[in-house]
TrEMBL record:
It comes from the Eukaryota. It holds the Pfam family STAS. It is found in: Membrane. This is Solute carrier family 26 member 3. Its main location: membrane. Keywords: Membrane, Transmembrane, Transmembrane helix. GO terms for cellular component: membrane. It is a multi-pass membrane protein. The chain crosses the membrane at residues 76-101, 107-123, 130-149, 169-190, 202-224, 244-268, 280-302, 322-342, 354-371, 391-411, 418-435, 455-480.
């Protein structure tokens, strides 16, 4: 391994499964056989049923698995400290992110409480802090302001009758959240957690950076103390900036000064936290400190009446856009959870996470909360302050509950400009993603284009349409392949119910049916043999040429038999080039690939008929990332024969592509191949 800056280069031989097996001996475990009586067999059957039920319960309720192993002496104190610290931040972020959702601040507290309680029982991450997430809050706000605008009548919805504007907005937000949760629940039940593979790091980076700019612009009216209606839809950011600059002379100086002071203090202290995190027992809770101070100063000097500052005010007492919200919320939460699961050496289940967030959002929506996911800063606090399990998460929710039912009135004098300032300060990490662009431009132009396209589309078209455009750009770069090569990734196991679906998709991807091509070629060879026997064709330097037109137009009664068998060139003295024009108006569908690579990393069953059809029309087939136990089963059931050989299996996509390049050096460029490989490896 050779170091190269922040990257590494691994040098090893090119392996197929055969060559790898030759150089690395496999150690097989011996399995002992037990002789069991009928009574033992009956007990074993009952035990299996019991174990199956226990496993199902642990899968559905992961808390059963970890709570019995909870180490009270070593973990409880850390969870308590973490829960209190995270709870304080969750309260402030709940209030602040409510502004992004165009809702009264108090409703963000519901989002910090109800979903967290459900996730405690259903989630598989031990460190995720469940609650409001700024990007999701902004997406909810776009729906809210579209259906219940600030400066016009609401949409014609039956449920709006007799409700105030605030109640209408809460109804919209909770309804969208419920549908979002339903989408997540359905995807979890359908076991489609793999969908996050199609949101690459580059796409997410461009999307979240654009979202950060949206959030920054949306908070300007609170920081400057301006009063104008919210805008949503395509070009919303342009119209919002137009409103800001046209009304900037009405800036509330008290709001502006308060915001600047708070942002400066929070940024400075956060920098201190980062630089001295190894020496500090816990990060300085600067957001909590400035909030308490701002509340006290605002109350003491009566900011609301003396300076016309808009405050939080009275605290509350105890669709189509939903699908991209469901994807974004899950993708962000899963990515963050994966980081900490790797750091602390435990596993998370993507499908169970979908179920957990689906039920959490549906339950929360029933109690007027809006879309929940996670925030990286809040989860980082929960982990860095000693949190070991979701006990910290539920204690954090209890802190929020105390604010909801007991001490929420103390936050009523808090200026909204303070919340806007806290939101802007917490965007630093996402806005700093602009620094990735020079590196991407230098090292991966395809990723650079994906980032820029996703960012620009999300910025000007809105987050929902921008995500769709970015995903389209990502998929376009993935299907870009070396000339003559098709790479087909199957993201789930193949079984009898979906094998026809995948076969159709494969035929659609390559652009032709191998069976039809095979039959056409065999039929063409029969005609060529017949014309050669009758002296109607002759062989020249240019290949086959017509000597005289054929007069026999009859068809054999058994002409269709055997057409699906391997091509046999016997009786024909030259090799037929199927890519050139054939004589006597013989027509055969073109085949524009020479190699087909099948990524079977998620496949547990294999049907050989389609593979043989490709091989028989001279398209090399390679299978990569096939599980070792599946290979065993293939050997046991006599899968391999003269056509399907073990040599078509390769341990990785890289190995297969390098072999193809060696075999077809004139097709495609090495740089293009590695671009495709890297993109596919990330998805």
């Amino acid at each position: 391994m050779q170091p190269s800056g922040r990257h590494y280069v691994v040098v090893r031989p090119l392996f197929s499964e055969d060559s790898f097996a030759e150089q690395h001996e496999r150690i097989n475990r011996t399995r002992k056989t037990l002789r069991l009586s009928k009574l033992c067999l009956y007990c074993l059957h009952c035990s299996c049923d019991t174990n199956r039920a226990k496993n199902a319960a642990r899968s559905l309720l992961p808390i059963i698995g970890w709570i019995k192993n909870y180490n009270i002496k070593e973990w409880l104190l850390g969870d308590i400290v973490s829960g209190i610290s995270t709870g304080l931040v969750a309260v402030l972020q709940g209030l602040a992110f409510s502004l992004l959702a165009s809702l009264p601040p108090g409703y963000g507290l519901y989002t910090a409480f109800f979903p967290a309680i459900i996730y405690f029982f259903l989630g598989t991450s031990r460190h995720l802090s469940v609650g409001a997430f700024p990007i999701l809050s902004l997406m909810v706000g776009a729906v809210v302001t579209r259906l219940v605008p600030d400066g016009g009548p609401p949409a014609n919805i039956t449920g709006f009758e007799g409700l105030s504007m605030e109640q209408q907005r809460v109804l919209v937000a909770s309804s969208v959240t419920f549908v979002m949760g339903a989408f997540q629940l359905i995807m979890g039940l359908l076991q489609v957690g793999f969908i996050v593979m199609y949101l690459s790091e580059t796409l997410v980076s461009g999307f979240t950076t654009a979202a950060a700019v949206h959030i920054l612009v949306s908070q300007l009216r609170f920081v400057l103390g301006l009063d104008f209606p919210g805008v949503n839809g395509p070009l919303a950011i342009v119209y919002t900036l137009e409103n800001v600059f046209s009304d900037i002379t009405n800036t509330n100086v008290a709001d502006l000064v308060t915001s600047i002071v708070i942002m400066a203090l929070v940024l400075i202290v956060k920098e201190i936290n980062d630089r001295f995190k190894s020496k500090l027992p816990v990060p300085i809770p600067i957001e909590v400190i400035v909030t308490v101070i701002a509340c006290g100063v605002s109350y003491a000097f009566n900011f609301e009446k003396r300076f016309n500052v808009v405050v939080v005010g009275e605290m509350v007492d105890g669709a189509v856009e939903a699908f991209p919200m469901a994807i974004v919320g899950f993708a962000v939460a899963f990515s963050v959870a994966k980081v900490y699961s790797v750091k602390h050496d435990y596993t998370i289940d993507g499908n169970q996470e979908l179920l957990a967030f689906g039920v959490s959002n549906m339950f929360g929506a029933s109690f007027r909360s809006f879309a929940a996911s996670t925030a990286l800063s809040r989860t980082a606090i929960q982990e860095s302050t000693g949190g070991k399990t979701q006990i910290a998460g539920v204690l954090s929710a209890m802190m929020v509950l105390i604010v909801i039912v007991a001490v929420g009135f103390l936050l009523e004098p808090l200026p909204r400009s303070v919340l806007g300032a806290l939101v802007i300060v917490n965007l630093k990490g996402m806005l700093m993603q602009f620094r990735e662009l020079p590196f991407l431009w230098k090292n991966d132009r395809t990723d650079f284009v994906t980032w820029v396209v996703t960012f620009v589309a999300s910025l000007f078209l809105g987050l929902d349409l921008g995500l769709a455009v970015g995903l389209g750009a990502e998929l376009f770069t993935v299907i870009y392949e070396p000339e003559g090569v098709k790479i087909f990734k199957i993201p789930s196991p193949i079984f009898f119910a979906n094998i026809d679906f995948f076969r159709d998709k494969l035929v659609q991807a390559v652009g032709f049916s191998p069976l039809k091509v095979l039959k056409k070629r065999n039929k063409a060879l029969r005609k060529i043999r017949k014309m050669l026997r009758n002296g109607e064709l002759e062989i020249s330097d240019r290949g086959l040429e017509v000597r005289r037109p054929s007069t026999d137009t009859s068809e054999d009664n058994n002409s269709m038999e055997g057409l699906d068998q391997p091509i046999d060139f016997s009786g024909i003295p030259i090799q037929v080039n199927w890519n050139t024009e054939l004589p006597a108006n013989i027509s055969v569908p073109p085949v524009n690939i020479h190699s087909l690579v099948l990524d079977f990393s998620a496949v547990s069953f294999l049907d050989i008929s389609t593979l043989k059809e490709f091989l028989r029309i001279e398209v090399d087939v390679y299978i990569v990332s096939c599980d070792v136990y599946i290979m065993e089963k293939l050997h046991q059931c006599s899968f391999f024969d003269d056509e399907i050989k073990t040599s078509i299996f390769y341990p990785t996509l890289h190995d297969a592509m390098l072999h193809i390049l060696e075999k077809h050096p004139d097709h495609g460029e090495l740089e293009k191949v590695f671009t495709v490989i890297c993109k596919l490896s990330r998805l």
